[in-house]
Amino acid sequence: MRNRSWGFILLVLSAIVLNLDAFELRKGQKTERISGSAGDVLEDDPVGRLKVFVYELPSKYNKKILQKDPRCLNHMFAAEIYMHRFLLSSPVRTLNPEEADWFYTPVYTTCDLTPNGLPLPFKSPRMMRSAIQLISSNWPYWNRTEGADHFFIVPHDFGACFHYQEEKAIERGILPLLQRATLVQTFGQRNHVCLKEGSITVPPYAPPQKMQSHLIPPSIPRSIFVYFRGLFYDVGNDPEGGYYARGARAAVWENFKDNPLFDISTEHPTTYYEDMQRAVFCLCPLGWAPWSPRLVEAVIFGCIPVIIADDIVLPFADAIPWEDIGVYVDEKDVPNLDTILTSIPTEVILRKQRLLANPSMKQAMLFPHPAQSGDAFHQILNGLARKLPHDKSVYLRKGEKVLNWTAGPLADLKPW
Ligand SMILES: *[C@@H]1O[C@H](CO)[C@@H](O)[C@H](O)[C@H]1NC(C)=O
Ligand SMILES: *[C@@H]1O[C@H](CO)[C@@H](O)[C@H](O)[C@H]1NC(C)=O
């Protein structure tokens, strides 16, 4: 009982504090510049710093696949499609492969959805292999480096490991033919076989227009202390429990389902986006993969992301000061989440909120169409530009081969 009333006092207190914040906003103290080497990088302009050659592939590798299932355009893996469209008309595109710094192969490996909209990665390895076979026999550039100056968008759960179950993904490892390429992927976890050194971790796709249409006035106080909507258990795939989210989501539910500071549930309300704008903290726990679109949503809606995913590598981690805007909580500390969050000083919360209000932070999380300066497309290009010039060692001697075309599961070697 005591615990409960204490919670309500805090709730009211935080509402007052955040009203104050809203007041400050009106006074014009809107955002805080992100100073220091990290945040400044967000505003870099990649144009003029790199040239990208886009391979022209038969439409069965991209457009035809999309025609079969237009849902792929709104899926959280849609970055592979929008990045293609973006590059076709981007000022960094060159039609002359001889002057290119980077080569891009437009292949939509995640656009194979079940009736429920879950992507199936089973055909992806064969499809990717087929595309690489095609570019390596029709152009001389692949063989020159065996892909070391090529980048691929592989937004699937575990990137180029192409499986949605972590154990299987680890067993498969990164597709052998992609082992020299730069991978642009949503999956990010330190010391994991599915995250290669030098990969670029990007945010999952979240529909920009849809989010825009749910914005509420910033003067509305953030009266929810902690907010979360989503699964706590995945009984279908993890009947015994403990594997899904490594038990972290279950621990959130078991410890805080009755805590008045926690607005958590599996119900996905129509006011989901509005609710995030009325919340101080938004939980972003791992699920099957460490990342989820919640992280993007939290940043867009100015809700401090509480990241519960040990060893996660966050999107554009070399440009976005995640430690300053979010809160990291170890998976094992979930039972203390209430104490951890209530003991963060008000001025720290206010500073995080001001940083989150910075438009360049939000811009970097989105793949808008048409593109806008500083958006996720530009951050990907910035990442690629920062890797230039290529080290001389990436160029192979004539006839030298490093990759093994027959490595990997036999089923992956079948033609696509
Ligand atoms: C690249 O190497 C492969 C196999 O080693 C070969 O079949 C192909 O013809 C080469 N591509 C070009 C353009 O020479
Ligand atoms: C390539 O991989 C296959 C299958 O794992 C293996 O049998 C073969 O020995 C490898 N080739 C080389 C040159 O390492």
From TrEMBL:
Main location: Golgi
Keywords assigned by UniProt, alphabetized: Glycosyltransferase, Golgi apparatus, Signal, Signal-anchor, Transferase, Transmembrane
Any one GO cellular component localisation term in the record: Golgi membrane
Segment forming the signal sequence: 1-22
Subcellular location: Golgi apparatus membrane
GO MF annotations, alphabetized: 1,4-beta-D-xylan synthase activity; glucuronoxylan glucuronosyltransferase activity
A GO biological process held by the record: glucuronoxylan biosynthetic process
Domain Exostosin GT47: 49-344
Highest rank taxon of the organism: Eukaryota
Membrane topology classification: Single-pass type II membrane protein
Similarity annotation: Belongs to the glycosyltransferase 47 family.
Protein name in the entry: Exostosin GT47 domain-containing protein
Organism taxonomic ancestry: Eukaryota, Viridiplantae, Streptophyta, Embryophyta, Tracheophyta
